[in-house]
Amino acid sequence: MELxxxxxxxxxxxxxxxxxxxxxxxxxxxxxNSVLTPVRRALPMLNxxxxxxxxxxxxxxxxxxxxxRDGDMTxxxxxxxxxxxxxxxxxxxxxxxxxxxxRNSQIPIDRLTEYEGSLVxxxxxxxxWSISSYTPNAVRVAEEIAPxxxxxxxxxxxxxxxxxxxxPLCHQTMGILARGIEDSGIPTLVISVDKLASERVRAPRxxxxxxxxxxxxxxxxxxxxxxxxxxxxxxxxxxxxxxxIRKLAVEIESKVEAVRGER
Length: 263
Prior knowledge:
Shape: globular
Helix content: 25-40%
Order of helices and strands: HEEEEHHEEHEHEHEHEH
Largest sheet: 8 strands, mixed
Number of strands: 10
């Protein structure tokens, strides 16, 4: 399966795109087909990978290049033991205030560790993967990042992957990566707050809600909201019988909580 359908068309349009105008005129990828790999283990038995495109890197290491026209085609493996205050963010296309205040709003390590402890998931992989927040060359994402990242997931014997984008462009990037990972035989789920972007790229499984870029995994310093987003999203992973996108009920639940004065 082509991760970016009609790649030659994208390359031609991308060459004409003026990056100085940000995403104005950017040739967003529009795919027609998708792929679906069945979830072969129940949540309490699988090793879950977390992939974030918030542009996180460990303080003192090389940050992602967010000035390159194509974007940075590398990724970083970060041990889950690395503390939140040891992370820095090369952010482009989203406001990093939320993730700086509370890593779990984009990189829900603490919430997933809680799920691991309560046996909602079998295990959270020993490291998680960080992608640049700025990767506009979609064909290079498909040809370089997707296969390299898929190989690493297989090396760690990952049984499912959760992908969390941070910006509008990240939604395309993570959708492409999900397609590549799924095509390699690992089921995925993308959490989205941009329904149009997700529908364009056609990731295999997408759970979306009306939320904020930069805090896609839930509001900062609001663990209950983060748990609602994650819980509903992860439990849906097994129920997709065909590629598609579904809307979470987390928005309704959060409004009810606010009316009650609980938030």
